[in-house]
Amino acid sequence: MKYGRCYNFSAGPAMMPEEVLEEIAAEMLNYQGSGMCVMEMSHRSKVFETIRNEAEADLRRLMNIPDNYKVLFVQGGGTVQFAMVPMNLMKNGVACYLETGAWSKKAIKEAQKYGEVRIVASSADKNFSYIPDCSDLDIPDNADYVYICENETIHGTTYFSLPDTKGKILVSDQSSMFLSRPCDVSRYGLIWAGVQKNVGPAGMAIVIIREDLLRDDLPQFVPTYMNYKTHADSDSMYNTPNCWDIYCCGKVFKYLLKNGGLEAMDARNREKAAILYDFLDRSRLFSGTVEAKDRSLMNVPFVTPSKEQDAAVVAACKAAGFDNLKGHRSVGGLRASIYNAMPKEGVEALVRFLTDYEKENG
Amino acid sequence: MKYGRCYNFSAGPAMMPEEVLEEIAAEMLNYQGSGMCVMEMSHRSKVFETIRNEAEADLRRLMNIPDNYKVLFVQGGGTVQFAMVPMNLMKNGVACYLETGAWSKKAIKEAQKYGEVRIVASSADKNFSYIPDCSDLDIPDNADYVYICENETIHGTTYFSLPDTKGKILVSDQSSMFLSRPCDVSRYGLIWAGVQKNVGPAGMAIVIIREDLLRDDLPQFVPTYMNYKTHADSDSMYNTPNCWDIYCCGKVFKYLLKNGGLEAMDARNREKAAILYDFLDRSRLFSGTVEAKDRSLMNVPFVTPSKEQDAAVVAACKAAGFDNLKGHRSVGGLRASIYNAMPKEGVEALVRFLTDYEKENG
What we know:
The structure is a homodimer.
Chain A: E1 7-8, H1 18-26, H2 46-63, E2 69-74, H3 77-89, E3 94-99, H4 102-111, E4 116-122, E5 146-149, E6 151-152, E7 157-158, E8 170-173, E9 190-194, E10 205-210, H5 228-232, H6 243-258, H7 261-282, E11 287-288, E12 299-303, H8 307-319, E13 322-323, E14 334-337, H9 344-361
Parallel strand pairs in A: 1-13, 3-4, 3-5, 5-8, 8-9
Antiparallel strand pairs in A: 2-10, 6-7, 9-10, 11-12, 12-14
Helix pairs in contact in A: 2-6, 3-4, 7-9
């Protein structure tokens, strides 16, 4: 890698495309003749307005977002979205959640502050190592929405087909898979994603919401900031947004468009994941922790037979330039997060290293 | 200016020290041998932990923050703080607010969602061009706190002495004056500041809160994210923080320490402001809009006799490399924001330009 960079397998914040970082560094002291850094720009200035509008337009093009959906840039990440979703969408006070791991559990706990949460499917019985059957869920008539975490970062599962919501609004946390593959936005009422995994720096979530879900009649206790309509009515400029994040994400959107869009990312990501999963399936030292049909293309957890060996591998990897491979404490072992910005060479190099490690220590 | 940079008089986001931007650019592809950009780092990694801990320690040193105060890094800016303050501090449901401009009005409106707001002083009668007498405010016994906006960015006023709160907790929005002068933190219960004016990029507020004000017993409707205790108990790492902002602010804290701390900034800021106010007091074309005793050292609003001439001056300034001088629509005219990072040379150059303009057009 150039610049002495490592292969960074962090689950998030995570790698960004090297050429994007080069562009950002080059524009630091004077953005395109504006005489200032993007961090120094008034958010109401024409130059920043252009940055913001291009970012939204490029994202709309990438995801083919229908005109009746708003794109919002909201600070606060997932923890804020866990509250905003029920605050804004619970009209009848009932919502259905699918419990598939740590992040859906956090979303459930927060939603319970605002109404009744029905857990209509769960994979808790096997430590969230699979996606439950979602073809015939018991969804009550008065349910306001059905909520999924579409890719569980910690447990390494993903939905390859969406649940049958029986006509109810589908809400999806796409944080750790956002822009990793094509997405039919029209099948969702609301998609949100913390950008710090597959797009840009931590500090913002992107929300894509169908316009008819925006409401004027929220309970008084809902802070102005936490009404989606506040952001929708002002093009996410009600208050000073995270301008830097919008700029960095916009750069990544342009990079993705230039490199073939989401179809190309999907092909690349499938190829990268296959290299790693094929290795794990062949290995006698390492094994994946997720049922084959539900394996995430982004987050790949795996284990050795012992915690001691897990730790030894993580340390050996770090010394060899493969960083952040320690698994989350709730799953243990190792985890390789291989988002869009992880080059195929990084995955190949990791597999070579693990193969050699197995030969020497297996 | 180097790099073709302009003098940027934006009210926020605003100028940052040039040497800080140079350092950030130099560390973009590989932060101090870590092999990655700060934007790519796991917030749980040792390298980021050091960045975060140094930022807090440097801020504590700069402001001499007592040990019984917590320092929090919270996403969402002022709009989120307007709700968090009453959500967390209204126990009796009564708070006193001083109405001194647009930002205190916004804070008042949001607080009214959560309890009774008593406006105990106001300068609305003269379009917020002064700070009201705060020596004998009518503060009820059951008031939970007294709230001020210590420097009104739009109107250009500042408190040179703090209100007598009759023993109640003082809460201050210091956004547009944070770190511009020494501050006796022990006189406040809570100080908050959006960092995008006098410190770093937009996307974060810093909250300094006395520990005994943290509470476990908030109403159920308060989102987990909006309880100050959530952040205090986790060193602001309950969720992924705005790591980039913490990094950039940390750089600015080190820059301030290296350059004499807040005493030196105060002297510099007084000198810079005096250059501009002395010019305005002498000028026959331009005049300041604020009563002399309450003039902000950070935000300097001024007008010509007509809106047409105001606009002509703003355009002439921009063409000459003095950007973002247009005043806020509620005051009109021009506004020069001269935060810590604006060099004295920038203010001198602006005054020379305005002096010449007056000779030619006055």
